[in-house]
## 1
Amino acid sequence: QVQLVESGGGLVQPGGSLRLSCTASGRISSFNAMAWYRQAPGKQREWVAVTTSDYTNYADSVKGRFTISKDNAKNTVYLQMNSLKPEDTAVYYCNQGPIWGQGTLVTVSS
């Protein structure tokens, strides 16, 4: 069974950037959708971005600031986050179908 492991979270100042990585222990099919979600303290988990072989899409709250990409050869999905805001603070999770990673914490604060 595929396992997903996220990395790249940390503390960043408002306006800064981070790149999250999600590496699968097994092979990622280029036809499978890969997504990022996030959960802020006291809030429900929300969808952030998705990528498939045909398209990418983003939540309105991150559109124009975040970029999702996939490297099939490395079995890795990335989330490049620019112009970060305090409201982006959350645990970010990688997702493929029923499989979830353990999450990586992103804190945006001065």
Note: Residues 17 and 82 are 4 Å apart (CA to CA).
## 2
Amino acid sequence: QVQLVESGGDLVQAGGSLRLSCRVSGNILGVDTMGWYRRAPGKQREWVAQITRGGRTNYAVSVKGRFTISRDYALNTLDLQMSSLKPEDTAVYYCMANIRANNYWGQGTQVTVSS
């Protein structure tokens, strides 16, 4: 069994910063790529950023230069540092871990950016 638990979501003003965290636990031998996704109200879930086991990162165009993804291999955590937040960043943010060819998801954490 694999569990992912996100935290750090909050209400923040435009231009502000937030740091999301995701803790992975359970049978996590062989964690490969990890990533963050988000779902805005009335929209489909979209990919935000990912980091491979080797540390290579990729970002959606909409967040590149503002968000930074990182992972701690010892603690099995995944973070997303978000800065220069915009109202359009408002969404539920989900953590994803690819483990032995299966994708596992957290329950999500709400980020609301006020204008």
Note: The longest strand covers residues 18-26.
## 3
Amino acid sequence: QVQLRESGGGLVQPGESLRLACAASGVITIPLSVAWYRRGVDKTREWVGGITTGGTTDYEDSVKGRFTISRDNAKNTIYLQMNNLKPEDTGVYYCRHARDDGVYWGQGTQVTVSS
């Protein structure tokens, strides 16, 4: 079993930054591969980006150049640094880990970008 817990969400103004964290615990293999998703106001779940076990990152086009995923193996934590936030980035952000025995999700953290 794997437990994922997101944190770091909040209310910010356009152009500001937030850093989300996804803390993993349980039976995990380090380094951990994780994907970030978000569910926007239209309730559609959207892939935001991810990091592989090898450290390769990839991002959805609308966040490229603004969002950065990193990992702290010692803390079993994956970060999503979000800069120059826009109102359309508003949503609940989730981290996801997939492996042979299943797909694991965190509970989500709310990000609201509004003036």
Note: The mean pLDDT is 95.
